[in-house]
Amino acid sequence: MHGDRPAELSLALRAYRQALEVIEPRQIKEERVVFPASNWLEASQTPVKSGFGSLDAQFSDLPTEHDVVGELFKEMRVLTDGYAAPTDSCNSYRAMLRALKEMELAERIHKENYILLPQVFELEQRLAGR
Question: How far is it, in rounded angstroms, from Cα 26 to Cα 49?
């Protein structure tokens, strides 16, 4: 519908698609393994038994993935002038920009990288006697 918009919109779409390629598998990994394992560690105070090694080893790439997604959203923010809708844009265009702004995961990524994951990995190591 907005094909006549400047190239910035198509560049923002490219960045969005790249972010989804990183976000979707990461979320599955977190929801199926990291979060249940962290709940187990806290509740049982016993190490997680896994044939795949420590959680730290399995998920050491999460902060890097978070950084990639953060950079892609930063690019989208710059391309859309802070998710600002042009004055002549329709409601769907405005809604799309609001949704992108809400999706920007900076706070969640910070909490996961610097609070949750280090706490989970430290608890795992302490319980394993390392």
Answer: 21
